[in-house]
Every structure is written in structure tokens, then in C-alpha cells.
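Memo to structure team: turn this sequence into C-alpha cells by end of day. - J.P.
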Amino acid sequence: MKSFDKIEALARKHHGGPKGVTSKLAEWSDDTDLTRRKDDRFLSEMASALFSSGFSWTVIQKKWPGFETAFERFAPKRVAAYGDEEIDRLLKDAAIVRNGAKIVAVIENARFVVATANQYGSFGNFLAAWPAADQIGLMDHLKKHGSRLGGATAMYFLRFSGWDAFITSQDVTRALIREGVVERSPSTKAEWKAVQAAFNAWAEESGRPRREISRILALSMGPN
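Reply from structure team:
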């Protein structure tokens, strides 16, 4: 695979030089202070990523105020205590997407957040303590202990929560294939290990956070 300065040069070529790439990176602002964020916001981001999976992000975001109201601002302990009565209420609430399996998953994830906070003091403390060099390990943990938090859902949750996550979007995957990191969209343990190793190497070389490396890889594929 190429050194990251050459990949960044490709991104600059396609997007107006160094200033153009800097401008593109600035379009995505991240609050990376994980320990300051309250647990209800992590549960909200989990729910947003979960409901957006297989659905229109735009539609979900337009309806999100309704989700916040319906799930009582995603207070983890309150949502974790939901039973059949609350599930029935949510299934009748036209302000949200009434998907029963995903509603139940939010409740299960509230219990996951509460249990994690009990152990670490807060969910933000837990995320802050997990090394960025082991995203695939964190994704495995979310899949194992959370509900419907696998794959892209986990990556988008981590990114929008402020954790330093790469996302294997279509363009990022194409760039990884171009660089010889993988031959297809990663799915096996070996392929994910290769992806993690590549991001770690580029992070060490460039000094950039992995979220920026992910974006620059996408930009290197050309204008969009």
C-alpha cells in the first residue's frame, strides 16, 4: 500500500489542493470529549444509527425530535425499565418509525449502557478508555453486548459519538482495495485485521486521527 502522504496527494488533486481537503474535513465536526457527554446522548446515537440502518438517514433525522420525545430523551435507566406497556405505546406512535424489533433493541441497548456505566462510571468513560488502535475489538464488544450494533451500525454510532472511528463506506472500501489492503468489502476476521493494521500504520505515519484518514481515503477516490 502507498504511504499516506501519497494518498493525501490524491485527495488534494481531486479536491482543490490542501485548502480543499481541509475544507472537506471541516464539513464533519466531531465532539471528541467522550467523558463530558452524558449517557443519554450515547443511547440516542445508538438508536439513531440502529434505526437508520437499511432506512433513509434523512427521514430518520427529520423524525428524530419525535424519537427523542417518544423515548423520553433516551434516559438509559428509564428506557431500560420499559416493558410491554411502553412497547405497545411506541408501536402506536406515528412520530417514530414503528419497527418492533428495533424498538426492543433500543431497550436492550439501554440496559447495556446502564450496565457499562455501572462498571466504568459512565459509558463515555468506557469508550474513552478503549484504544483507537483496536476499533475491531470495540466493534466486537458492541456486537456481543449490545443489540443490533454490528458492522456499519457500530461504525456510524462510534463516529457520531465522537470516538475516533474509521468507516468502511463504499469509497473507503474502494480505496482500501486500490491500496491492496483487502480484495473486497471486509467481512472475515483476517480482512478486518488487515484493515485495522492499515489504519494504524497510516495513523502512526501521518499523525492524523483515524476518522480523518478514513475521510481522506474516500476523498482520494475522486470528486463526488
